[in-house]
Amino acid sequence: MHSDNEKRQTASYSMANTDAYRHILPIQIRFNDVDKFGHVNNTVYFEFYDTAKTDYIATVCKDVDWERVAIMVVKIEAEFLAQIKAGNHIAARTRVSKIGNKSFHLEQDIIDVDTQEVKCRCLSVMVLYDLVRHQSMPLPEAWRKAISEFDGL
């Protein structure tokens, strides 16, 4: 049961306009994703989200030098709404909802592609990290522009 305060905190992404997602990645449910109860274990959802956020960055932010730059999760929260079963056809949707100086907020969800039912929602705060200097770094202007144009910010 969510407290009133928790409801207010999650409302920013759980009530968001789901039509605004431009990045949608089909996800294949693997045999080992399903537990003895016949549904996808909740820890696997974060692997789905990681796969989708990696594809989002590769799609939107071209020419990332992964030898020098890392993108780190500094906060993540998920709201599990409905079970995913082995036979479901699912996709992960990803968008940036806010861009800061050194961070950005990712909104993601997992949907059943046949029914459009949202199975889970996720909010992540991501920070760019300079692997050479070992410190956070500002988002490059090219990333800001590409993300803003892609997600309509």
How do the helices and strands line up, and which of them pair or pack?
Layout: H1 4-14, E1 23-27, H2 42-60, E2 69-80, E3 90-99, E4 103-112, E5 118-130, E6 135-136, H3 141-151
Antiparallel strand pairs: 1-3, 2-5, 3-4, 4-5, 5-6
List keywords for this structure.
153 residues, alpha+beta, 27% helix, globular
Tally the helices: what do you get?
3
Give the second-level CATH assignment, the architecture.
Roll
Per CATH, the class reads Alpha Beta
State the total count of DSSP E strands: 6
Rg estimate, integer Å: 16 Å
Question: Number of domains in the coordinates?
Answer: 1
Largest sheet, strands/sense/barrel:
6 strands, antiparallel
The CATH superfamily turns out to be: Hotdog Thioesterase
* Spatial shape: globular
**Share in β-strands:** 25-35%
Query: What class do helices, strands and sheet pairing give?
Result: alpha+beta
Q: Give the termini distance in whole angstroms.
A: 33 Å
CATH topology: Thiol Ester Dehydrase, Chain A
Calculate the mean pLDDT score and round it. 88
Helical coverage, percent range: 25-40%
Give the topology string: H per helix, E per strand: HEHEEEEEH
Give the uncertain stretches in residue-range form: 1-16
